[in-house]
Design brief:
There is one protein chain. The protein has about 400 residues and is an alpha/beta fold. It has 15 helices and 15 strands. Helix 9 links the parallel strand 2 and strand 3. The longest helix is centred in the C-terminal third of the chain and has 25 residues. Bound molecules: flavin-adenine dinucleotide and iron/sulfur cluster. The site of iron/sulfur cluster has 14 residues, from helix 2 and helix 3.
Length: about 400
Amino acid sequence: MAKSLYLNKVQMQAELSRCLGCKLKPCAKACPIGVSPADFIALAKAQKEPEAARHILARNPLAGICGLICPDKFCQKSCTRGNIDFPINIPKLQATLVANAAPDSLYEKLPAYNGRQIAVIGAGPAGMAATAALVGQGCKVTLFEAVERIGGALNLIPEERLPQEVIRQDWSRIEANGRITLKLKTKVVDFKALLKQGFDSVIVAIGAPVVTPLNIEGEALSLPFDDYLNAPEKYKASGRVAVIGGGNVAADCALTAKAQGALSVEMFVRRRISDMRISKAEYLDLLAHQVDICAKTSPEKISKDKDGLTLTVHQNTFKDGKWEAEPNTSLELKHYDLIIKAVGSRPIEYEEDARIIFCGDCKNGTTTAVEAVASGQMAAMVALQNTLEERKAV
Ligand SMILES: Cc1cc2nc3c(=O)[nH]c(=O)nc-3n(C[C@H](O)[C@H](O)[C@H](O)COP(=O)(O)OP(=O)(O)OC[C@H]3O[C@@H](n4cnc5c(N)ncnc54)[C@H](O)[C@@H]3O)c2cc1C
Ligand code: SF4
C-alpha cells in the first residue's frame, strides 16, 4: 500500500497538536454523517487511538475509504484552524487512525436478530453503508451486486488515490458477522420480485449508470469515462489525449492517461478553473503532472481522419447569470489519439414505494462517497421504520 497516503508518527503528532479543540465543533457540523473530528482528535491526543478509531467507525463504516478520498468541501472547509494558517488535514488523520487502530469488526455487540430480512441492491458506498446500518439494528441483509467485486464506482478511482485493499478492509469490518449474505455477479432486474420472495424491504443503491452525453456531432468517437477507467491499459495512448469535464472523475481520467504514457493531456472545462469540482490537492496534482486545463471551453464536434481525432471547441462567456457560447470562437484541434468524456453521470428515473427505497447516486446523481454513505444510512432507517409500521398495522 502506498505509504504517503498516511501520516507517519511525527506528522500525526504535529497535525494533532495544531487542533484548537473548538467548543462549537464546526468540523463535526460540516460532516454529512456527523463524524466529529473535534472528538476523535481529542481522543488521539490523549493517546487513545483505538477509541478514536471506534469513535469514527461508529458514524462512518467506510471511514478508511472516506479518509483517503473525502473532498475538502466538508470538515476541512469549516475548520477554524484555516483562519490562522491552513485547516487540519482531518481526512488524512482519520485514514491513519483507522489504518493503525481500527478493530476487526464494526460492531462492538450486535443486537438480537429482529426478524427482518432486507434486500440491498448494489455494493457501492450507499449499499455497503445501508447494509452496515441495518445489521447494526438487528436485521439480516442480502446484498446483491451485479459485478464480481464490491465497491461500485470506488473501483474506478486509481489505486494511487484509493488502494483496493482499503475498500476490502472497510468491507471486512462490516461483514464480520453472520447476518450478511453477499451475492456477487447477481444483477437484479425486478426489484418488486424480491418482496414476493420474502424480503420485508428493498433498498436500491445501483449508482448513476448513465454517463451524461455531450450531445455533439461525432460523440460516438469519444470514450465514456467508466469504460476508460475500468481498463485504461486497453486504451493506452502515447500521443495527445483530451478529457472533457472538470470534476474529480475527469481529473482521474487525465492523471490515468498521463500515467499510461500520454505525451500531452488536455482537460476541457466548461466554466472557470475556480468552478472545477476538485480539491486544491487534486488541482495541484494535475499541474504537477503537466495536465493542461482549458477553462471556459466546450466541445462542439468530434471528427476523425487518417491523422487521428479532431476536436472542435468554442469559448464560453458568463452572461445574464448563465454560461453561453461566445460567437465566432470555434477552433479545430487536431491529432488526438483519444477523447474521453467525463462530464458526469445521471441518476435513474424511479418510482418511490414504501418498501422499495432508493439511495446514493442513483437517487441524487453523481455525489461523493460520504454523501452516498449518508444516503444509504438514511435509506436503512426509512426501511426499518416502514417495516415496523407495517407490522404494527397487521
Ligand atoms: C473516477 C471517479 C472518481 C471519484 N472520486 C471521488 C472522490 O475523490 N471522492 C468522493 O467522495 N467521491 C468520488 N467519486 C464518487 C463516488 O465514487 C460515488 O459518489 C459513489 O461511489 C456513489 O455510491 P453509490 O453506492 O451510490 O453508487 P456506486 O458506487 O456507483 O455503486 C453502485 C453499485 O450497484 C451495482 N449495480 C448496478 N445495477 C445493479 C443491479 N441491477 N443489480 C445489482 N447491482 C447493481 C453496480 O455494479 C455498483 O457496484 C468518484 C467517482 C468516480 C467514478
Ligand atoms: S474545527 Fe478544526 S481546529 Fe477546531 S476542533 Fe475541528 S479540527 Fe480542530
